[in-house]
Design a protein that fits this description.
alpha/beta, Quinone Oxidoreductase, Chain A, domain 1, Rossmann fold, 2 domains, seven-stranded mixed β-sheet, six-stranded parallel β-sheet, 8 helices, 15 strands, 22% helix, binds NADP nicotinamide-adenine-dinucleotide phosphate
Length: 304
């Protein structure tokens, strides 16, 4: 098959389109004919790109762990899917991803994709959508009537968090650079704090939950804006300061078939829409990574 692979560390310039062996499905896997794939720009720095779960070198590796496509093979021990099913999901970080014509994926990490959703839209949902679902409701305990701050509310992840929080009946304050304001408000934020023009400290009273997708100095400063009993949930780094009387959480998203099915339901009902900033063909995967690193807003999707 054709695949985009990386042979050694050094950034996205090392991504090359080349011939690669067809994936060999393990017990519990399906093989998916990839129609669209998604990625996060910094995944090439993550350990899972370079080693398997036993710590062994697994290069050359295929990036992009969001996948949407059609099942072409069902391996021994796999239940729940048949050849021809439309599926989407999140592939394991320590195995090859979806920047390829085919990928082998644990079936438990996939859900059925309704006919009304396109592969391209679906490929933007798994990683970012599962992250938001888990950040807001599993780790953040968000409830109707509460107030949540979403740092980076116009980004690939943050824009989904804004929609889910609003849908749950929360009051939503999004933050980010000024250029993200329109997207965040369109996605459902009640207010937007332009961090280039306003001080976060001056603009926001203490809230029930802060979901931070930006990190750095802002993460450290955010603890002071969490109410007692509230939570500061980060996906970039451990919060260096605990909120007084509240919780500080760093987590890594986990695949979850039921939650994927819920994302599909929300999208089908028009309650969830990915913010896709660019779509590139497989042959331009390197350029897709570079474009995202240079600041294309939202998710960049690779069509295969
Ligand atoms: N732990 C996990 O499981 C997990 C899961 C998913 C993602 N992540 C991580 O979460 C981060 C966000 O991912 P993403 O895909 O949502 O990225 P993204 O699409 O680039 O979103 C980040 C948003 O934050 C904004 N932003 C970044 N730095 C800022 C700053 N200094 N001031 C104001 N706004 C700023 C960006 O604005 P601009 O576009 O203007 O820069 C963008 O709107 C990445 O580091 C990713 O690796 C972790």
């Amino acid at each position: 098959m054709k695949a985009v692979r990386i042979h050694q560390r050094g950034g996205s310039e090392g991504l090359v389109l080349e011939d690669a062996p067809d994936p060999r499905p393990a017990t519990g896997d399906v093989v998916v004919r990839v129609h669209a794939a998604g990625f996060v720009p910094d995944e090439l720095d993550w350990p899972g790109t370079w080693v398997d779960r036993a710590g062994r070198d697994r290069t050359p590796s295929i990036p992009a762990h969001d996948v949407a496509g059609v099942v072409t093979e069902v391996a021994y021990g796999t239940t729940g899917f048949a050849v021809g099913d439309r599926v989407f999901g999140l592939t394991d970080w320590h195995r090859d991803g979806a920047a390829a014509e085919y990928v082998a994926v644990e079936a438990r990490n996939l859900a059925r994709l309704p006919d009304s959703l396109t592969f391209t839209d679906a490929a933007a949902l798994p990683l970012a959508g599962l992250t938001c679902r888990q950040a807001l409701f599993v780790h953040g305990g968000l409830e109707s009537g509460q107030t949540v701050v979403v740092h980076g509310g116009g980004g690939a992840t943050g824009s989904l968090a804004v929609q889910m929080a609003r849908d749950a009946g929360a009051h939503v304050i999004a933050t980010g650079r000024g250029r993200a304001a329109d997207v965040a408000i369109e996605m459902g934020a009640h207010t937007f704090v332009d961090l280039e023009r306003q001080s976060f400290e001056d603009a926001v009273e203490p809230v029930d939950l802060i979901f931070d997708t930006i990190g750095g100095d802002l993460l450290a400063r955010s603890a002071a804006k969490v109410k007692p009993g509230g939570a500061l949930v980060s996906i970039t780094a451990p919060p260096p300061v605990e909120p007084a009387g509240g919780r500080a959480v760093l987590f890594i998203v986990e695949p979850n078939r039921d939650q994927l099915a819920e994302l599909a339901e929300r999208a089908e009902a028009g309650r969830l829409r990915a913010h896709i900033g660019a779509v590139r063909p497989l042959a331009e995967t390197r350029e897709a990574f570079a474009a995202k690193q240079k600041g294309v807003p939202g998710k960049v999707v690779i069509e295969v």
